[in-house]
Amino acid sequence: MKNRNILFVLALGAGMFVTSCSNDDNDGETIIPLQGKYSLSQTGTIVDGKEVLIDAPQNAAGCNKDYLDLRLSNAAVIGDYNGSDCALTETTGTYVRSHNDLTITVGNISSTSDIMNLTNKELKIKDKTTGVITVYTR
pLDDT tens for residues 39-70? Predict the structure, then answer.
């Protein structure tokens, strides 16, 4: 009887161990939500196999950083501060995420990027056509 109890406890423990392990077969996708407001931080490209990033020249000196706001409604709002008075121009479009691709459409123009990194603090994308890398921070 004692052997049965030990076997039962071992089998139960092994069963719990097996069911607690998860299959991380998510094709490299992240579970961090994409929605949020991101400030433009850096841009760059890959040179000789290495990322080369610089502070985003699109951000006007003395102004707030330009931004990308991806909303739950799939609206994409692009904020651009410019001029001596740091006037804000907002352009609205839509976005669609398909696996690790992000497509933003404004008017008749669409741009598709690979999501290179998505964390609670950063969204890094690489344009599929131009190869330009853009880094946004939350």
Answer: 999 999 999 999 999 999 999 999 999 999 99
